[in-house]
Amino acid sequence: MITPALAQEDIVLGLNQSQVSISTNFNGSEIIIFGAVKRETPIPKGPELEVVVTVSGPSEPLVMRRKEKKFGIWLNVDAVEIDHAPSFYAVATSAPLRDVLSRIEDLRYRISVPRAIRSVGAPMNITNSAAFTEALIRIRRKSNQYQLIEDGVTVDQQTLFRANVQLPAALIEGDYNTRIFLTREGKVIAQYETVIDVRKVGLERWLYNLSREQSLVYGLMSLAIAIAAGWAASAAFALLRR
């Protein structure tokens, strides 16, 4: 008996913009991710195709601290270092995440928001290190830096798909890695990766370069601006009193 070969399904992807420019009046941007599924054989029968899209900003280590009020003063009592935390992370799915992706596949590909964060270890005196990661996720969800957009991917005839991801105003420069996963019954059957380039332009770019290449000049300029602003405010109040 000859068993028919499994249908090969690949991703053909498009973006409405592959570069985002951060200027002085930048207040966020919307990325439209669209594509199609390329097949050499008819659509397989059985469970429908699902799509998962992730957009990840540059990662950086950081320290999360827990405060307690002692003797009427808030003090840092515990700290956990998180080795890898994306500055921005969005997950968009064509159905609830638990229905389109199994836990094993999530572990393998690090797709969900908690899996995108890596914390290797914590001090021996801290027994609830996971709470620090959860606190980071809560904080960044409030500022729209971490997003879970369930049912945010539209799939048409198991062939065409489209997702909208809103980038917040507080973006940092760098490569924003974009991944697309095709899944069936919770298993990843195909994936595709591309990059969105986020860069400062105009005055933002000039100030950014100045702060890193000529830090002394940048510091003196900032001080001069602060003095000028203080003098202007003082003069304005003096005029109002007359």
Q: Could you characterize the architecture of this molecule?
A:
The chain is 28% helix and 42% strand. The strands form 3 sheets. The protein has a 6-stranded mixed sheet. α5 packs across α6. With 242 residues, it is α+β, with helices and mostly antiparallel strands. The protein is extended, with a radius of gyration of 24 Å. The termini are far apart. β5 and β6 form a beta hairpin.
Portion of residues within helices: 25-40%
- Taken in chain order, the helices and strands follow as EEEEEEEHHHHEEEEEHH
Main sheet specs = 6 strands, mixed
Shape: extended
Mean pLDDT: 79
The total of beta strands comes to: 12
Structural class: alpha+beta
CA-based gyration radius: 24 Å
Distance between the termini: 100 Å
Low-pLDDT sequence parts: 1-6
Distinct helical segment count: 6
The percent range for strand residues is 35-45%
Which strand order do you get reading across the main beta sheet? 2-12-11-4-7-8
Summarize the structure.
The chain is an alpha+beta fold and 242 residues long. It has six helices and twelve strands. The strands form three sheets. It has a six-stranded mixed beta sheet with strand order 2-12-11-4-7-8. A four-stranded antiparallel beta sheet has the order 1-3-10-9, with no helix packed on it.
